[in-house]
Amino acid sequence: MEVRVKNLKRYFGKTRAVDDISFSFSSGEIVGFVGPNGAGKTTTMKIMCTMDEPTDGDIFIDDTSVVQYPELARRKLGFMPDALPTHRDVSVDDYLDFFARSFGIKNHVRRKVVDDVEEFTNLLGIRDKFLKDLSKGMKQRVSLARAIIHDPHILVLDEPAAGLDPRARIELRELLKALAQQNKAILVSSHILSELAEICDSTVIIEKGKLLRAGRLDSFDTSDLPIKRIYMRSLDPVDEFYRTLLQLPKVQRAKVVGSGVELDLEGTDETISATVANLVGQGCKIVEVRTLKDNLEDIFMNITKGELN
Ligand SMILES: Nc1ncnc2c1ncn2[C@@H]1O[C@H](COP(=O)(O)OP(=O)(O)OP(=O)(O)O)[C@@H](O)[C@H]1O
Questions:
Q1: Domain ABC transporter: where (predicted)?
Q2: Is residue 189 located within the same domain as residue 281?
Q3: SS3 content of the chain, % helix, strand, coil (to 5)
Q4: What is the share, in percent, of the chain residues with pLDDT greater than 90?
Q5: Whether residue 149 is found in the same domain as residue 239
Q6: Please, what is the average pLDDT of the chain?
Q7: Do the domain assignments include residue 178?
Q8: pLDDT of residue 220
Q9: Do 167 and 108 have their domain in common?
Q10: Which residue out of 43, 80, 205, 210 has the highest number of ligand 1 atoms within 8 Å of its CB and is therefore the one to mutate?
Q11: Domain that holds residue 264
Q12: Do 27 and 155 fall within a single domain?
């Protein structure tokens, strides 16, 4: 199963919340959806889950348009919104049973369906508790249980890890991995970038409604990014080499790592080459120059400008 976001646009008056975005993902894949506040993540996810309609463009689940066939799309999709359930005097079990009913799961199988989902999301021990008495992490698990009660092929999660403590975040991560192993296609937005990098097969980065990058993290072309991270080593004493590097105008940051120096250089590959030539010209005995791979956080900071929509 494939989800294809195709030239999606959603304008609110003059605000171009989503401005011609295209990307796709498939069964068994976890995709991180990353962007600063107001980038258009929630708007995209809401359209995917048929809770809003695009100004133009569409989203296809295989060949089914979510705009033309929202009922069909809803059966295939599970959505975990960023707002948690707030109903006060409803137990976890009644809450999940209600959603199982609303998806038309028949009486004789519904008990088993709810039991299985409660077991998977580790809710069996608290299923008689009222929602109002749950901690944030518990509510998050209830919200995930609700999203998967009808066994959807696609899961869309808006900021599921927000506000969770480290243990709850690890538990959530393990649940998402298990769901991907069940061959579900998962789109998950988050601001906790390091966490996404750990579980995601690929990443979609947007800002101000525009797509900046989409694909596997290790396949991102970073050659056009304004900051290059480099490791250099010379035969000169490392402290001396470090001080020489700091005096170069394009060096933004440097730190000694082992017998070499790691530095952020502002510019292109040409700048790296010119910098090495400059150092050799000053008599530095360079023996190693390596471009370091950016992690998701570095790439995100490097390509987004932090401007609000
Ligand atoms: N119903 C609406 N009416 C008017 N403007 C809206 C509406 N929904 C969203 N927007 C605007 O669209 C833009 C994108 O918002 P969206 O909630 O999709 O961003 P986001 O990436 O999910 O942000 P965050 O990380 O802060 O949740 C913002 O400028 C927002 O103010």
A1: 3-233
A2: no
A3: 35, 30, 35
A4: 63
A5: no
A6: 89
A7: yes
A8: 66
A9: yes
A10: 43
A11: 227-293
A12: yes
* Torsions phi, psi for 9 (to 5 deg): -135, 140
pLDDT in tens, 190-219: 876 666 777 888 999 999 999 988 888 666
- 160 alpha carbon to ligand 1 midpoint, in Å? 17
pLDDT mean over 54-65? 95
Report yes or no on 298 lying in a domain: no
Rounded to whole angstroms, how far apart are CA atoms 161 and 143?
12
Residue 223 confidence (pLDDT): 64
Eight-state DSSP code of residue 29:
-
Residue 302 within any structural domain of the chain: no
Q: How far is ligand 1, taken at its centre, from the CA of residue 104, in Å?
A: 32
The pTM of this model reads 0.79
Q: Which residues pair with 232 in a beta bridge?
A: 261, 289
Q: Is beta strand 2-12 parallel, antiparallel or unpaired with respect to 77-80?
A: unpaired
307 lines ligand 1 (CB under 6 A): no
Q: Is ipTM beyond 0.95? A: yes
* 39 CB within 6 A, ligand 1: yes
Helices marked H in the chain: 41-48, 70-76, 92-102, 107-120, 136-148, 166-181, 193-199, 238-246, 269-281, 296-303
Is the confidence at residue 308, as pLDDT, over 60? no
Classify residue 83: in a domain, yes or no.
yes
For the Cβ of 35 lying below 6 angstroms from any atom of ligand 1, the answer is: yes
244 lines ligand 1 (CB under 6 A): no
Q: Are residues 80 and 174 in the same domain?
A: yes
277: CATH: 3.30.70.260
186 and 283 part of one domain: no
Are residue 166 and residue 272 in the same domain, yes or no?
no
The pLDDT, as a whole number, for residue 292 is: 82
Asked if residue 203 has its Cβ within 6 Å of ligand 1, the reply is no
Assess whether the C-beta atom of 229 lies below 6 angstroms from ligand 1: no
Res 85: pLDDT: 74
Residue whose Cα lies nearest atom 31 of ligand 1: it is 38
How many domains does one find in the chain? Answer: 2
